[in-house]
Structures
1.
Amino acid sequence: MWDGEEEEEDNKKPKQITPPKPLIVKDREDEVDDGKKKVTIFFGTQTGTAEGFAKVAKVVDEILTEQGAKRLVPVGLGDDDQCIEDDFTAWRESVWPELDQLLRDDNDTTTVSTPYTAAVLEYRVVFYDPANAPVKDKNWNNANGHTVYDAQHPCRSNVAVRKELHTPASNHSCIHLEFDITGTGLSYETGDHVGVYCENLDEVVDEALRLLGLCPDTYFSVHTDKEDGTSLCYSIASKFDV
C-alpha cells in the first residue's frame, strides 16, 4: 500500500526519462541475396507543437541510413494540429514516382510507367425525368430512405446556431453548433454524440457536373447489386450528394 501523502510527494518529483534502447539491425543467418528489392515505407505523425515532433520516425530514418539504406524521399511527417490528410497526400505524391522507378522491370524497354490499379465498386445508375422523379417528398430528412437513423443512415438537418468559442487572438478554433431537428422524430440528450458530414463546395459540384455532362436538376438513383442480381434495399443517396 502507498501512503497518500507520500504518493502525492512522489508525483511532484520530475520523472526520469529513460533513453530508448539502441536499435540494432542484424542479418538473419539464413537470409540470402535473392536479388529482390526491399522497400521500407513509414509516415510519422504527432502534434506539431509537441516536444520531439515525430521523433520515432526521425530516429528510425537515421538508423536506417547508418545501416546503409537508401532514402528515396524525405521522411513523411504529419502534423495533427494541422490537416494531416494534406500532409500525407503531398508526401504520397512524392513517393509514387520513386517507387515507379524502383519497381520497374529492368528488361522493360517501354517508357510507360508501371500501372497502378485500384478496385472500384461498380454501381448501376438509374436516371429519372424530373417531372416523374420518384421523389414525391423533397424533404432532405428522408434522404436516406429510412425511418431509423444511425451512423450508416444519417439524418440531414440544417445548422441553426454557429458560434466560434475562441477569440480572434487565439490560433485555435472550437465551434459550437446547434442543429434544427424539427420534424425528424429525433431528440437530443446531454451526452449524445453528433457527427457532421460536410457538403461539397459549389465550385466542386459545378466541376463534377461539367465533367459528367449533367445538369444541376438531374434526378438519379444509384444501386449496387447482389450476386443474385437483386438490388440492395438501402439508399446510398447521401454518399452521392452533388
2.
Amino acid sequence: MPVALVPAPEAQPRVFGRLLSQGTCYTAGMQLSNGTVILPLICAHQGLTWVAALLFPAFCFGDIVGNSVSPLVLQRVGRMRHRLLAVIAASVAALTLCDALIPWQGATTAVVFLLTCAIAGVLLGVAGVAYPDMVSSKLSGARRGELFLFQSAIGSVLATVVTLFVVPLLAHGNEMAYRRDLLWLGAVGLAGSAIAALFVGPVGSISATTRMSMRDTYREGFAVARSQPWFGRYLVACLLFGPVTLGTTFYALRTAHHSRSLHVLVILSSIGLVFGSPLWRKVYRFFGVRGMMLGSALLSVAAATLTLVAEVCGQWTHIWAYGTVFLLATVAAQAVFAAAISWLSVVAEESHRGTLIAFSSTLVAVETMALAAVLGNIAQNHSTVWPDVVVLVLAIGAALASLGAPPSETRRAVTAIRVPTVAPAPMLQAA
C-alpha cells in the first residue's frame, strides 16, 4: 500500500502561509466576479433569460472536459503543479476582464458570456483536481482542513470590504458600472492568486504511475465503483448534492426581477463564507464528513422551506427573506467541496486519488449541467412556487444520502481499537 509523503512539520508553516495567500486571493477574486450570481443577473436584467439559464450548464460542460483531461495534464506538468495553477488563475482573470469590457448588448453578451463560462469551466475543471492533489502532497491532514476553510473566510472578508467600500466609490451610484467594477476587481484578485501560486513551489513527490488515456481513467473509475462499496455511496451522495451546490444560482435568479439586489447577494455570499468557515471546521472536528454533509443538506432544506413560505405569504420581495435564504444557501454549498475531498482522502489510496477525483467530478458535472439548465429555467418562473418545492425535495434527498458518509474521526478511532483486525483508515485528510 503506498505511503503518503508529508512535508516535515517545521516546513509546513511557511508552505501553509504561501498556500493561504494564494487561496485567499483566489477566493476574493471568485467572490467579486461570482459567475453563478453576477453573470446570470446581468443576462436577466438584459432580458436574456435563456442565456441566464444556460450559463451554468456551459460552465459544467467545460468542467467535464477539464476533469476528463486533468490526469493527463497533471502527468505532463509533473511536480510543477504550482505553475499550472498560476496559468489557470491568470487565464480565468483574462476571461473575467473580457466579460467586464464587452458591451452588454444582445447577441454579443450571449456569445461572449457562454464562451467564457465554457472555457473557465475547462480551466477550473483541471484546477479542481490539481489543487487538492497539490495541497495533499504539501500539508498534513489537520492543516489541510484549516487551509480550505481559512482561505474561504479571509478571502470572503476581503471581498466584503471591497464590495462595501471600494466598488461604490468607483461606480458613483451607476448600477451598470457597479457590475463592471465587480468583475474587473475580481480579475485583479485572480491575477494576484496567479502571482502567489508561483511562490508555492513544486510538490515534493508524485506517484510513479504510467500515463493513462481518458478511456483508462474512466475504466479504472468504473472498476473501483464496482469493487468498492464506499465509492458507490460516495458517487450517489455527490450526485444528490448537486442541487445544493446550485442553490446560490437558483436563488439569485429567483431575485433577478428585484431592483438593486446584486450588491446584497455579493455581500451576503461573502458573509456566508466567513460564517461558514468556523462552523464547518467545528462540525468536521466533532462529526466528521457525515456531519458536514448532513448539516449542509439541512441548511439547504431550511433555505428552500423559507423561500416557499415567504413566497406564499408575499414576503419574498423583502431583503430579510431572500437575503436570509441566500445566506443559508451559501453556507450550505461551502461544505460540499470540503466534505467530498475529505471523504475521498479518508478512504482512497493515494495512487488512485487523482483518477477518482477526476472520475467522480466528471459524473457530477454531467448531472449538474443538465440540472442547472432545468433549475435555471424554472427559477425564472416567478409567478408560482412549485420550483421551490422541487428544490426542497432534492435537498431532502441529499440529507438522506449524507447518512452514508464516513463518521467522525473519534468514532472511527474507537472502532479501530475495538476491532484490531481491521486495518486503520488512512490518516490522509483534506476537509
